[in-house]
Amino acid sequence: MSTTVLTRFSTWKHFLAERVEQAKKMGMSEDTISNLAFEIGSFLDEKVDPKNDEERLLKEIWDCGDEDERKVISRLMVRLAQKS
């Protein structure tokens, strides 16, 4: 994943939407996709500095949540990407 993808939130949503669509075509369930989104969110939280205001806000919300709440955020991000 290039840093360009993370620079603009709209680019990130488009990137995520493409990955979700690929996962669906491979036969992955919504639960599996959401679990992968949770793992990606955990990785980004630990390893990547937010590049814009939207990502900073998501990080602050992520950091306030417990594991169950973070899983909800992950599912919502998948839905947001699908809606875009």
What do you see in this structure?
The protein is mainly alpha-helical. It has a domain at 29-84. Helix content is 82%, strand content 0%. It has helices spanning 3-7, 9-25, 30-47, 53-64, 67-83. The radius of gyration is 12 Å and the shape is globular.
Give the overall shape, derived from the CA principal axes: globular
State Rg: 12 Å
Report the strand count.
0
Q: DSSP helix count?
A: 5
Helix content: over 70%
Write down the secondary-structure element order: HHHHH
SS strand fraction: under 5%
Structural class: mainly alpha
- What kind of sheet is the major sheet? none
Q: What is the arithmetic mean of pLDDT?
A: 88
Stretches where pLDDT is under 50 for at least 5 consecutive residues are: none
How far from one another are the termini? 20 Å
Protein name: DUF3243 domain-containing protein
Pfam family, one: DUF3243
